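Worked problem 6 (solution included).
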Amino acid sequence: MTIKPVVLYHTQQASRTRQKILRIAMDIASAEGLEGLSIGRLATELRMSKTGVFAHFGSKEQLQLATVEAAKQVFLEQVAQPAVEHFRGVPRLRAMLENWIGYVERIVFRGGCFFAAASAEFDSRPGPVRNQIAKLTKAWLVALQEEIAFAQSAKEISASVDPAQLAFELHAYVQEANWAFKLFNDKAAFSRARRAIASRTAAATSGQIQSTRDLKKEGSTR
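Solution. The predicted structure is:
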């Protein structure tokens, strides 16, 4: 009878090591691209063996996918989840956008918004990594759109507003701020984005506010 050697796998320790690897991977990818990731690069950064890093992922593509997933969790924790504490509709929409601007402004990753960088890098590269980036980026845009639609149903935003169009514009303001900050080191881009968001949101709600006032006025004259 042959006895196979037993390998004791310390799950908690392995999990901590994996998270440490991914933290470095996210920071590198945000500034240098997901293609800039390599087992060798991470091994050097973390002072680990290549075998040790490889054991956690198995391939460069799996490393990239794991990095995207880790970046999603950071985005959820710092942007999406805190916004849920606000009332649905315009208050939550504003919180979503403010949290997103703050995430870039605080330099959570040295390359700025992880998904803005990843989208630009992989928009023309078919494959699983592009698909996942597209899925997550689309989900955020849809979340903005759905919050706008909810605000319409609550009569906070004018019924004449196209939720998809407004979400597109608000999304673009933050993307532009991220771009200007990273390329030109223009910190004023954040205040410009905030003013643009406030102005566009006010325009979307002003018609509804006026309509509500007219209805109240009409009711008082009866």
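Discussion: Confidence is low (pLDDT under 50) at residues 1-9, 209-216.
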